[in-house]
């Protein structure tokens, strides 16, 4: 559905996107993550031909993103991260205009989206809160029932109830076989809705995988409760151990690879309980952000 | 051209255009009303040639000179040029800087078509103000006692409209070509002001007389539309300039990255 090959946009000074090779499959909800300035929005703007690559190429829906841009834009829905509209006009007027640019949309679909998100389309946009403007952004991105949705920070400013509606909609869209490519800083969202994700750092792709696989290769942690306090330093010296945190009788050991050495070292003491601590997405995410991605 | 884009652009600019048109009508009625009591007195004053040129000839003693100095030389081009330039810069580079154009161009519309539609809308703004000028002239001249033919008043409104098209097109070219609103507004205004100064002062210096031909003001009012009627050459030059500059903006935006 999306395929990039060496896609690059060099802004100079190390800023931009460099050599992105990425494939997003049909029907998946694909998460695109990375810190500010990592190149997420640049990638989306390149895909929509709003900016042109320094080198490399990209295809969407089997079409070239530059040569076939018009046809691609007809079939794609886009929500920019810095969504803005004409402040003096009402949401209704702007949605009518954007629908006309698409040659018309089914008014029933638009109306159902407006109702679903509780969007206020009869007040001038300058009078709307950030969240209410974002609702209009979602309506315009979905109202023509696109085959592919490119959403940059879609839940920014939305209250939890609307977020829930949005995530339900994503589920429906995915079930219909449509594809979603979304960037987000909200890790719970990525965890909830994406099937696979990519992490960008300094304009370069660090990893592409399912969340399940990312968890497997991430640092694991064991929380060990001893009968009496133990010397934590004996765990630090073990092979594969990356961190040790001791608090009274409770010791948390982070390690890569096999747990064998840690368990055997613990067994030399009076062990009351051993509990694996599941890596949450934020920790995985931060590891990739901080390191060179060589996990 | 995208009709929906032209319509929404015109709608955004309509309040300013209608206000300006109504304002010009009011000003011209007031100017006409002043002529019988003030015009003849001021007409006897000795005004330096340079000042006289700045005011479009400065012949205050006749109603044609009176309206030429007040409306044709100052208010008309100031209002038409001002609205055309600020409107054109706002609807191209302004919308880009405000991040609206990025969303619009994520829809199935080609960039040149978008700019053509916006240029058409700015032409609509200019026509509304030119219409206001025409109506105001008819009313103002009537209040002032008459003395200018309808054809000559129409000629001024037409020349003014083409002056507005050209100055607006400068801002379209720069706004669409660079995405920088301040540049489009600043250069557009500079073209208008410098053109006015050149057209006024260049003829005073024999060696620099030719400079007037590079000023859009010359093609707008150099032929004195209120006194002589329509200047076809002026209209053709301003019209061609408008088309070339708009085309430059359409090509320019198609060849660059959107800035925001």
Write up this protein.
- The complex is a heterodimer of chains A (295) and B (260).
- Chain A has eleven helices and 14 strands.
- Chain A has 295 residues and is α/β, with parallel strands linked by helices.
- Chain A folds into two domains: 2-215, P-loop containing nucleotide triphosphate hydrolases (Rossmann fold, 3-Layer(aba) Sandwich); 219-278, Alpha-Beta Plaits.
- Chain A has a six-stranded mixed β-sheet, with helices on both faces. A four-stranded antiparallel β-sheet of chain A has the order 2-1-4-5, with helices on one face. A four-stranded antiparallel β-sheet of chain A has the order 12-13-11-14.
- In chain A, a hairpin with a 2-residue loop joins strand 4 and strand 5.
- In chain A, helix 4 (107-117) runs antiparallel to helix 5.
- Chain A starts with a strand and ends in a 5-residue tail after the last helix.
- Chain B is mainly alpha-helical.
- Chain B is built from ten helices and no strands.
- In chain B, helix 6 packs parallel to helix 10 (232-254).
- The mean pLDDT of chain B is 90.
- Chains A and B meet through helix 2 and helix 3 of A and helix 1 and helix 4 of B.
Write the layout of secondary structure elements.
The complex is a heterodimer of chains A (295) and B (260).
Chain A: E1 2-12, E2 15-24, E3 29-33, H1 40-47, E4 55-60, E5 63-64, H2 69-75, E6 76-79, H3 91-101, H4 107-117, H5 130-142, E7 148-152, H6 160-175, E8 179-183, H7 187-193, E9 196-201, E10 204-210, H8 211-217, E11 220-226, H9 233-236, E12 241-247, E13 250-255, H10 260-266, E14 271-277, H11 281-290
Parallel strand pairs in A: 3-8, 3-9, 6-7, 7-8
Antiparallel strand pairs in A: 1-2, 1-4, 4-5, 9-10, 11-13, 11-14, 12-13
Chain B: H1 3-43, H2 49-54, H3 63-97, H4 100-104, H5 111-143, H6 150-178, H7 181-201, H8 216-221, H9 225-228, H10 232-254
Keywords:
heterodimer, A: 295 residues, Alpha-Beta Plaits, 11 helices, B: 260 residues, mainly alpha, 10 helices
Sum this structure up briefly:
The complex is a heterodimer of chains A (295) and B (260). In chain A, 34% of the residues lie in helices and 30% in strands.
């Amino acid at each position: 559905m999306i395929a990039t090959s060496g896609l690059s946009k060099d802004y100079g000074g190390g800023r931009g996107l460099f050599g992105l090779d990425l494939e997003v499959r049909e029907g998946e909800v694909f998460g695109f993550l990375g810190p500010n300035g990592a190149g997420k929005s640049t990638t989306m703007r390149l895909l929509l031909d709003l900016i042109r690559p320094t080198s490399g190429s990209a295809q969407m829906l089997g079409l070239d993103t530059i040569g076939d841009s018009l046809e691609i834009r007809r079939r794609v829905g886009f929500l920019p991260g810095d969504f803005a509209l004409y402040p003096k006009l009402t949401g209704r007027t702007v949605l009518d205009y954007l629908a006309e640019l698409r040659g018309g949309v089914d008014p029933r679909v638009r109306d159902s989206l407006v109702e679903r998100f509780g969007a206020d389309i009869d007040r001038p946009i300058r009078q709307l809160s950030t969240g209410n403007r974002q609702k209009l952004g979602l309506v315009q991105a979905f109202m023509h029932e696109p085959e592919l949705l490119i959403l940059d920070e879609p839940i920014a400013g939305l209250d939890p109830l609307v977020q829930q509606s949005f995530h339900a909609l994503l589920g429906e869209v995915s079930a219909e076989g449509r594809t979603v490519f979304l960037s987000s800083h909200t890790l719970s969202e990525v965890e909830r809705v994406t099937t696979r994700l990519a992490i960008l750092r300094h304009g370069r792709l660090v990893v592409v995988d399912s969340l399940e696989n990312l968890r497997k290769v991430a640092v694991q942690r064991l929380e060990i409760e001893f009968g009496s306090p133990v010397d934590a330093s004996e765990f630090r010296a073990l092979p594969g151990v990356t961190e040790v945190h001791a608090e009274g009788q409770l010791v948390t050991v982070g390690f890569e690879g096999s747990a064998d050495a840690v368990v055997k070292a613990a067994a030399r003491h009076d062990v009351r309980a051993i509990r694996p601590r599941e890596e949450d997405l934020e920790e995985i995410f931060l590891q990739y952000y901080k390191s060179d991605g060589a996990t | 051209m995208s009709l929906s884009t032209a319509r929404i652009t015109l709608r955004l600019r309509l309040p300013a255009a209608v206000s300006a048109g109504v304002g010009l009508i009011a000003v011209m009625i007031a100017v006409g009303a002043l002529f019988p009591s003030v015009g003849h007195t001021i007409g006897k004053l000795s005004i330096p040639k340079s000042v006289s040129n700045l005011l479009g000839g400065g012949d205050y003693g006749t109603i044609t000179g009176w309206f030429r100095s007040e409306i044709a030389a100052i208010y008309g081009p100031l209002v038409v040029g001002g609205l055309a330039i600020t409107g054109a810069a706002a609807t191209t580079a302004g919308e880009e800087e405000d991040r609206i154009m990025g969303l619009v161009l994520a829809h199935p519309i080609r960039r040149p078509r978008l700019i053509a539609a916006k240029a058409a809308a700015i032409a609509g703004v200019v026509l509304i103000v030119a219409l206001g000028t025409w109506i105001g002239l008819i009313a103002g001249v009537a209040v002032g006692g008459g003395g200018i033919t309808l054809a000559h008043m129409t000629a001024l409104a037409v020349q003014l409209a083409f002056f507005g098209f050209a100055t607006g097109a400068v801002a379209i070219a720069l706004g669409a070509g660079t995405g920088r609103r301040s540049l489009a507004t600043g250069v557009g205004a500079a073209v208008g002001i410098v053109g006015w100064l050149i057209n006024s002062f260049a003829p005073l210096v024999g060696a620099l007389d030719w400079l007037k031909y590079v000023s859009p003001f010359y093609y707008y009012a150099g032929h004195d539309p209120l006194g002589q009627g329509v200047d076809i050459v002026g209209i053709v030059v301003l019209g061609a300039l408008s088309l070339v500059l708009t085309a430059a903006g359409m090509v320019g935006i198609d060849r660059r990255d959107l800035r925001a």
